[in-house]
């Protein structure tokens, strides 16, 4: 994975880093607060030898350094710890004293330092004082010759014993810095790991790669769509409405030599916004002057009637069963040249009904009576209804929701269409998280319109509505005539 992709994953999953950092700082603060203060008592020894007995200075220095290493082990020995406990009332066992002692030496010198760490400041000083006295006494005893004369080694205390006036641990500043560093490292690792294992669609490029089809549109996420799903009224000037119009333009020019007049709109899963987009695409096409017929072919979970506010009690199901003529159930929506064929009652066999000869004949009739037929179908992975309808259309439009649909699911939907030779016109990324800069640019451009220009557009819109209404009336009459 290259560095650019890692930075994108970190930016996308920034909240993981923030949460991990806060947890790390919280744990660090809790440990720091609950930790007992510890004090450090130290003493420094100097190991030397008289000039007599060692004539070579260099050999004498090596000899002393080897001795210092031995004394370092002696300071932490069981014998010395037991001697300190026996001679002093410290309230500690020999093992506890031994665990509190640490030693250190400076390379190339004959200085030896012993340190004692304890939660009690007074006791730490007492232990190091007793340790210092017993250590010097023990070394002198060991180094004394058999005749009672001093040996070649002399050890002196040149520093301490002393105890730190303030605790050496915990160190809040150091702990916070370490906790921050560990939190950032852990959070970054988790963010990259989550990004590598996340199979959901995150951008338009991934959707193009998975489907192998052109991207015809990116519909931005609009919180207002929950209460106002259609691009009419105040929503007609939103960025979402402009994205639908861009989709309309791209769809009309996706193949100029063989334009699709009957388009099946489908998705991999339910809840990806295909029905809403079908309605809005039909509205946008009607606004451009096309005679549009919107067919609700999702016979299991009909939504078109609810969004457009049309009666869905009688519709496509009744037409396919031969109970009514299509011209009797088609409804004109609003003042635009848009007709709607609702779903009707839910049949017991939707797949068989949609794949029947009656459906094929109906689509031929609708093709002759409208410029463009938009068919809202069922999700591809849930049932086979969507594939059955898409086979009879001129092409299919695949809708996928950003951040919800997994790439394998989209790939499976594309394969389902390809398996029956359905022409995939393109894909649409729905509820896309677009950069705020793009939304600001569109809003600034929209608000920059002058009042006279806005008035002119309003007058042109009213004229278009009158023309659209007349076309819609003729559209219904023609559809009724062809259906009979």
TrEMBL record:
Q: What UniProt keywords are attached to this protein's entry?
A: ATP-binding, Cell inner membrane, Cell membrane, Kinase, Membrane, Nucleotide-binding, Transferase, Transmembrane, Transmembrane helix, Tyrosine-protein kinase
Q: What is its main location?
A: membrane
InterPro entries named in the record: AAA_dom, Bact_polysacc_biosynth/exp, LPS_length_determ_N, P-loop_NTPase, Wzc-like_C
Tell whether GTP-binding is among the UniProt keywords. no
**Membrane topology of the entry:** Multi-pass membrane protein
Is-annotated flag, keyword NAD? no
Superkingdom field:
Bacteria
User: Where in the cell does this protein reside?
Assistant: Cell inner membrane
The catalytic activity, as recorded, is: L-tyrosyl-[protein] + ATP = O-phospho-L-tyrosyl-[protein] + ADP + H(+)
Residues in domain Polysaccharide chain length determinant N-terminal?
1-86
- Family per similarity comment: Belongs to the etk/wzc family.
Q: Tell me what this protein is called.
A: Chromosome partitioning protein
In which organism is this protein found?
Answer: Micromonospora qiuiae
């Amino acid at each position: 994975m290259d560095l650019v992709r890692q930075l994108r994953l970190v930016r996308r999953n920034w909240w993981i880093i923030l949460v991990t950092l806060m947890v790390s700082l919280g744990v660090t603060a809790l440990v720091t607060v609950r930790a007992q203060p510890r004090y450090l008592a130290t003493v420094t020894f100097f190991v030397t030898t008289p000039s007599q007995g060692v004539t070579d200075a260099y050999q004498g220095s090596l000899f002393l350094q080897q001795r210092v290493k031995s004394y370092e082990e002696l300071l932490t020995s069981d014998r010395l710890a037991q001697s300190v406990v026996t001679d002093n009332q410290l309230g500690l066992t020999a093992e506890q004293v031994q665990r509190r002692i640490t030693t250190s030496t400076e390379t190339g010198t004959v200085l030896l330092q012993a340190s004692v760490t304890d939660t009690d400041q007074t006791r730490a000083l007492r232990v190091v004082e007793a340790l210092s006295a017993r250590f010097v006494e023990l070394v002198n005893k060991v180094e004394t010759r058999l005749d009672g004369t001093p040996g070649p080694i002399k050890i002196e205390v040149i520093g301490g014993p002393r105890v730190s006036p303030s605790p050496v641990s915990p160190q809040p500043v150091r702990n916070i810095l370490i906790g921050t560093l560990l939190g950032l490292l852990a959070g970054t690792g988790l963010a990259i790991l989550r990004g590598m294992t996340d199979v959901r669609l995150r951008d338009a490029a991934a959707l193009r790669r998975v489907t192998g089809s052109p991207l015809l549109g990116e519909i931005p996420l609009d919180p207002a769509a929950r209460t106002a799903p259609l691009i009419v009224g105040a929503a007609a000037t939103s960025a979402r409405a402009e994205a639908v119009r861009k989709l309309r333009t791209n769809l009309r020019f996706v193949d100029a030599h063989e334009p699709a007049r009957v388009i099946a709109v489908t998705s991999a899963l339910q809840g990806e916004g295909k029905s809403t987009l079908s309605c809005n695409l039909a509205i946008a096409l009607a606004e451009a002057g096309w005679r549009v017929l919107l067919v609700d072919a999702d016979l299991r979970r009909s939504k078109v009637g609810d969004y457009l506010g049309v009666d869905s009690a009688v519709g496509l199901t009744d037409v396919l069963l031969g109970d009514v003529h299509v011209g009797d159930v088609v409804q004109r929506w609003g003042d635009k040249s848009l007709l709607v064929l609702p779903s009707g009652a839910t049949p017991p066999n939707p797949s068989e009904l949609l794949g029947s000869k009656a459906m094929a004949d109906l689509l031929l009739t609708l093709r002759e009576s409208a410029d463009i037929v938009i068919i809202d179908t069922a999700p591809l992975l849930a049932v086979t209804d969507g594939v059955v309808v898409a086979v009879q259309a001129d092409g299919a439009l695949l809708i996928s929701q950003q951040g919800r649909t997994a790439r394998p699911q989209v790939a499976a939907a594309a394969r389902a269409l390809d398996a029956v030779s359905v022409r995939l016109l393109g894909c649409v990324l729905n509820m896309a998280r677009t950069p705020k800069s793009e939304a600001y640019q569109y809003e600034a451009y929209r608000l920059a319109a002058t009042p006279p220009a806005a008035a002119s557009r309003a007058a042109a819109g009213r004229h278009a509505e009158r023309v659209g209404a007349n076309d819609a009336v003729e559209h219904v009459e023609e559809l009724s005539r062809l259906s009979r």
